[in-house]
Specification:
The complex is a heterodimer. Chain A is of the alpha/beta class. Chain A folds into 4 domains: about 80 residues; about 400 residues, TIM Barrel (Alpha-Beta Barrel), CATH 3.20.20.300; about 230 residues, Glycoside hydrolase family 3 C-terminal domain (Rossmann fold), CATH 3.40.50; about 180 residues, Immunoglobulins (Immunoglobulin-like), CATH 2.60.40.10. Chain A has 28 helices and 33 strands. Chain A is globular and about 110 Å long. A two-stranded antiparallel ribbon of chain B has the order 1-2. Helix content of chain B is about 70%, strand content about 5%. In chain B, a hairpin with a 2-residue loop joins strand 1 and strand 2. In chain B, helix 1 packs antiparallel against helix 2, helix 2 runs antiparallel to helix 3 and helix 4 packs across helix 5. The chains are: A alpha/beta, B mainly alpha.
């Protein structure tokens, strides 16, 4: 009896473990790609036999033939990029560069030791590179004699913290306790706290007084949230009341630095726009330099810039406001929940909304335009109600008062100093007869004493007319239209640059009158400027204004070109470059972004207008409930599938004998495409579409064996150089670079602040392109191209700028560089990911003018391959560049209007595919095939893949099959189109690099496979054994009659 | 006359059934409320769990007449519960992936659903462990003869 019971128990236990082993095996195989990434293993590989005639099937060539070449190549580019991304903001009495051979300096600020190298999550920089000789203190000590006592205090403190992080993907090179995703805690050590970690921290100030270098910073990254006015009091009060203002402890550290040296240099280690006007106006602060997120190598170039070995040439790509809480964009921001959010199915992801009532007036478009109207004393520009203007001390005004540009702005968009001086001359402007392009020639001369690079910033002003006021068309008083960066000019050297300005970008979108892009009758201006404010002052000077009219400084009219268009024009800009009529797509109907257009919400939103700045200043629009059609759309299930359409015309699974490899580099117009597409079944499409997490699933019917993919945009998230290979052969020295990643360049925002299109192209070639080739990852998700609506999107460092032209052209250059190496780029996140708060599901509303003139104009440059650098125009080597726009995109987590972004037909089909001619791959962010992505609506809107692991969840599972979808004619047509988009983009990427007719995928043994196979073997054996013993015992017992 | 007293061993088996019932109820609640409300139920989990629980209840009620089949029935119950919990885990793998792969990217309701699912899985597992113990010690306890009445003495 006892034996029977024992064996029964053991049988149950064994069978439990056996079932568990089976489950483990299934789950491991389900997550095989991320598991490979996590464990640095390879569970399959693509095998190709070499051609007998010796020809190569590699149409995209890597320059990195070994681990050594790759390691050096990535490093050298990171250093090259870092040279141009630092922005010198203040340099009183030429305090910089430091002149001593090896200056004796004291480092202040926790971030001088615990430097923020990059984002925490979302393009996290490479931790292993930092750890191998590139910690901030190590780099500083290579260039400076650093005060050891002060350093010791920070070191002792940081030794109490946890270095690194956990979780999937790249681990951040940061201290876990110094990251605050909620934007509530500002990490800094006060003098009292410094004394706790080294009582003698101040003992050597006199010995190391050549300069006091203060590093102030904020962390940021994916899912980082900041709120305005959350630091008015409490534990972290700041000057501005915002998290990005200076805390009491930071100010104490500044005072300490002033005591330590007569020369105080402040480095701003943050991509979020910090608020530090008090440092700008403080005469005891000699220099300020923005360094953003420098990456693992960037501090070398920061130090070389401080020493004068590098001449700074970066310029701000965002407006540095004194107190962002007074900006119109931040009036409606954060967590503003639908009051009835709980009524919706949870997996529909209905949470909150964002009403961007500022219209086009975000960033400099707001500050400069309001400034312009104060000079003209128009539009109620000077009057400001409480909470909408900034006190001289930087705090937010709590009473009604007068708006003053000088109080609102710390540094304007485009600002940046150099160690030399330049003279820029507007030589000529030719407006072509078709009004589509202007040819602008600008001469630049280095008039200083050291070599340096100069940025040409060309701005435009368009007329603000009665027509505009009648139809609510808003006009920025100044807008960037193009930019170029010179080569390094020696003292006295000159260069002339010819710019081809796309005049489509000065057209305004009129959603109420002409319902297309228009150009008003009136005076137009092109102006050079050292920044947006300088350019506007130059325009004002041309218009006869001076400081006597309230200008902050007199302008230079010679840097301005004026012309007049005598008639209103609603035709020239009403047809896209793809030949499609441009008209309202986002102003009414299901895909509208204008909340006012939905039934029951009429006149809810008042958009900011320069005709009455104070009277139309935005509010937060809290307390709205989702009702009516808007609520139906939010449910993400708003298009009913037909069950009985005649779909006989659609052929699936045809045997046409073609393979994808037959289409390597094929043109969209190739008439064989339909035959290839017909080979694919709907279920094959669904399997492909659903398995897109770091993966490009196989399509067996066209002999595509599949590839892995990875997250960018700063390089590979999950792969390291020990996995590197050259044309299918692993590097012989790969193991020597175990753990080293490719995310070594400064942040994407830093790149934009270089204002260098050629550098961005090279970034695309190397950081995206070479990463793709050496790891055989055809898709690298990037570049990140959402506009900065303000500085409070914690993920801002992964995006470029507040301006659509700066962001658009830098992004476009990066795309062109990446595609030259065959990367199937995924521009992210289309579109309007304006904050990380509730990013998954938040409904973003705005008027169509804002959508089209800012975010969409920005993305359009990359989708249409615009912004070719002047130097490429005259260089045959680049003749084939900028002929093809982006091949891929990733949609955003947020809703566009009321619909899931991927399901918004207005953006995804009408604008992106029709107007811009986009014919590529369109994947959702990590939604999986779930209701949050509105899968059937998204397929109908051109979505080709859903980032996830294959299986449909929830109610979506009911229709996620070929049997169901094949009965709806619209769905069949959409799937056919989407299959072609997939195959076309793959055929033109390096997914087919090295592929020939022999290519196949073979499965490999890995550690995790060995583990589950062992478990299965052991527990199968024990289950069989114990079950046998039980049965023997049981029957013996029965036989014995017990 | 033969009378069987319900002893501590029986209570352990009863606990096994109660844990299984709680795990099963949590599965149902987890699948039909909160983030997963409206999602399809896995009927295999329902069928297998119900059979296991009913079998257990029958074994408990008819322990006298089923005495000879006790071990066999417990193995069947164990296998059914083991497969149920594995299916339950498999059902929640994408939920766990959402929470793990890209942190702070999911609604709180999704995390809540995952945590409730984990609790449900834990109850199933505890139920199986209890079943293993119960199968080894039996549910009828030690038999003691007192006159012509058989009493099951608690241990």
């Amino acid at each position: 009896m006892k034996k029977t019971r024992l064996t029964a128990g053991l049988t149950i236990l064994s069978s439990f473990f056996l079932a568990g082993s089976v489950t483990t095996a299934l789950i491991m195989e389900y997550y095989r790609d991320p598991l490979d990434e996590f464990t640095d293993s390879r569970s399959s590989m693509i095998v190709t036999e070499k051609n007998e005639d010796g020809t190569s099937d590699y149409n995209f060539k890597s320059d990195f033939t070994s681990g050594k070449v790759a390691f050096e190549g990535f490093k050298n580019f990171a250093l090259k990029e870092a040279e141009e991304t630092n922005v010198l903001l203040k340099n009183e009495n030429n305090a910089l560069p430091l002149t001593q051979d090896k200056p004796r300096v004291t480092l202040f600020g926790l971030r001088s030791y615990a430097t923020v190298y990059g984002n925490n999550g979302g393009s996290t920089p490479d931790k292993v590179t930092v750890e191998n000789g590139n910690f901030a203190d190590e780099v500083f000590q290579k260039y400076f004699d650093v005060n050891p006592s002060m350093l010791e205090a920070y070191e002792n403190y940081c030794n109490t913290l946890t270095w690194g992080g956990s979780g999937f993907g790249a681990k951040p090179p940061s201290y876990a306790q110094l990251n605050d995703q909620k934007g509530e805690t500002i990490y800094e050590l006060s003098p009292e706290e410094l004394a706790q970690y080294n009582p003698d921290y101040a003992s050597q100030f006199d010995e190391y007084s050549d300069a006091a270098i203060v590093v102030l910073g904020r962390t940021g990254g994916e899912s980082y949230n900041y709120y305005k006015q959350n630091c008015v009091d409490g534990e972290n009060p700041t000057t501005t009341g915002n998290y990005l203002g200076l805390s009491e402890e930071e100010k104490e550290v500044i005072e300490l630095a002033k005591e330590a040296s007569d020369k105080v240099i402040v480095l701003i280690n943050s991509t979020q726009v910090m608020e530090f006007k008090e440092l700008t106006t403080d005469p005891d602060i000699d220099s300020i330099m923005w360094i953003g997120y420098p990456g693992p190598y960037g501090l070398y170039k920061v130090c070389e810039t401080l020493l004068g070995d590098v001449n700074p040439s970066g310029h701000l790509g965002d407006t540095f406001a004194t107190n962002a809480a007074a900006s119109p964009a931040l009036q409606s921001f954060g967590n503003i929940p639908w009051t009835n959010a709980s009524d919706f199915a949870k997996d529909a992801n209905v949470n909150s909304y964002l009403v961007e009532a500022e219209g086009i007036y975000s960033g400099y478009r707001y500050y400069e335009t309001r400034y312009y109207d104060t000079v003209y004393n128009q539009g109620n520009a000077k009057t400001a109600k409480a909470g909408t203007w900034t006190n001289p001390d930087g705090s937010l005004a709590t009473t009604d008062g007068e708006w003053d540009y000088e109080n609102e702005i710390n540094y304007p968009f485009g600002y940046g100093l150099s160690y030399t001086t330049f003279n820029q001359t507007l030589d000529s402007v030719e407006i072509l007869g078709n009004k589509k392009e202007a040819v602008v020639k600008v001469s630049v001369k280095n008039t200083g004493n050291v070599a340096g690079k100069s940025v040409i910033q060309l701005y435009a002003q368009t007329p603000y007319t009665d027509y505009d006021k009648q139809y609510d068309v808003e006009k920025s008083a100044i807008q960037l239209v193009d930019f170029e960066k010179t080569k390094e000019l020696e003292p006295g050297e000159s260069v002339q640059i010819t710019m081809h300005v796309d005049l489509n970008n000065i057209a305004s979108y009129d959603s109420k009158g002409a319902k297309t892009f228009i150009a008003d009758a009136g005076d137009y201006y092109f102006a050079l400027g050292t920044d947006s404010h300088d350019a506007l002052n130059n325009v004002l000077a041309k218009q006869g204004k001076t400081v006597a009219d309230g200008m902050t400084a007199n302008g230079d009219a010679s840097k301005v070109y004026q012309w007049n268009w005598s008639s209103f024009d609603d035709a020239t800009y009403s047809v896209s470059s793809n030949g499609v009529e441009i008209t309202n797509r986002l102003s009414d109907g299901d895909y509208s972004m204008d909340l006012n257009s939905f039934e029951g919400y009429e006149n809810t939103v008042t958009y900011l207008s320069r005709s009455d700045w104070n009277g139309t200043f935005p509010e937060s629009y809290e307390g709205l409930a989702a009702t009516g059609r808007l609520a139906e759309l939010l449910g993400n299930d708003f298009i009913e599938l037909s069950t009985n359409d005649d779909t006989s015309e659609y052929v699936w699974g045809a045997d046409n004998g073609l393979t994808l490899n037959d289409f390597k580099g094929a043109d969209w117009e190739d008439d064989r495409w339909s035959e290839l597409v017909d080979q694919v079944t709907i279920d094959e499409f669904l399997a492909f579409a659903g398995n897109a997490f770091h993966n490009i699933a196989a399509i067996p019917s066209v002999n595509y064996v599949g590839n892995q993919a990875d997250d960018g945009p700063g390089g590979s998230d999950s792969h390291t150089l020990n996995e590197g290979q050259f044309e299918g052969t692993p590097w012989s020295d790969a193991a020597e670079y175990n753990g080293f990643g490719t995310r070594v360049a400064p942040s994407q925002q830093n790149l934009a602040y270089s204002w260098n299109k050629e550098l961005a192209y090279e970034n695309g070639e190397i950081i995206l392109g070479e990463t793709s080739l050496i790891f055989n990852l055809p898709i690298i998700i990037g570049p990140g191209m959402n506009l900065h609506r303000h500085g409070y999107n914690g993920r801002g460092g992964e995006y470029y700028s507040e301006d659509p032209i700066l962001s658009g052209y830098i992004g476009s250059a990066s795309v062109q560089g990446a595609q030259s190496k065959g990367v199937l780029v995924n521009i992210k996140h289309a579109a309007f990911n304006d904050q990380e708060i509730n990013r998954s599901g938040i409904a973003v509303f705005m008027n169509e003018q804002k959508a089209r003139e800012l975010e969409l104009r920005n993305l359009q440059q990359a989708f249409e391959g615009k912004g070719k650098p002047a130097s490429f125009h005259d260089n045959e080597e680049y003749n084939d560049t900028y002929t093809q726009g982006a091949y891929g995109v990733m949609s955003s987590y947020n809703r566009i209007g009321a619909t899931a972004s991927s399901a918004n037909r207005g953006v995804m089909v009408d604008i992106m595919r029709n107007e811009w001619g986009f014919k590529g791959y369109n994947v959702t962010d990590f939604t999986g095939v779930s209701l949050k992505a509105a899968p059937k609506e998204s397929i109908l809107a051109g979505t080709t893949a859903f980032c996830g692991f294959g299986s449909a969840s929830g109610s979506v599972a009911e229709y996620w099959s070929g049997d169901v979808l094949s009965k709806d004619a619209d769905m069949c047509a959409a799937i056919k189109n989407n299959i072609k988009y997939i195959l076309f983009s793959l055929a033109n990427s390096n997914a087919l690099n090295g592929v020939n007719s022999t290519t196949k995928r073979v499965e490999l043994m890995t550690g995790w496979r060995a583990t589950y196979i062992t478990m299965l073997t052991v527990f199968s054996a024990t289950t069989i054994t114990t079950a046998t013993l039980f049965l023997v015992s049981y029957f013996r017992q029965r036989k014995a009659g017990k | 006359m033969t009378k069987r007293k319900f002893g501590a061993n029986g209570f352990i088996f009863l606990l096994c059934l109660l844990f299984a019932i709680v795990g099963f109820v949590i599965y149902l609640v987890n699948s039909t409320t909160g983030y997963l409300s409206g999602t399809a139920l896995n009927y295999w989990i329902i069928i297998l769990s119900v059979i296991a629980i009913v079998l257990g209840a029958l074994l408990l009620i008819f322990r006298n007449s089923m005495e000879g089949y006790e071990g066999l029935v417990m193995i069947v119950i164990g296998v059914l519960l083991a497969v149920s919990v594995c299916l339950f885990i498999d059902e929640r793998k994408t939920l766990a992936a959402d929470v793990y792969f890209i942190p702070v990217n999911y609604p709180q309701a999704e995390a809540d659903a995952l945590y409730l699912g984990i609790v449900g899985v834990a109850f199933y597992i505890v139920s199986i462990i209890t079943l293993v113990v119960s199968s080894m010690i039996g549910i009828e306890g030690k038999e003691v003869k007192k006159d012509d009445i058989i009493v099951v003495e608690s241990k």
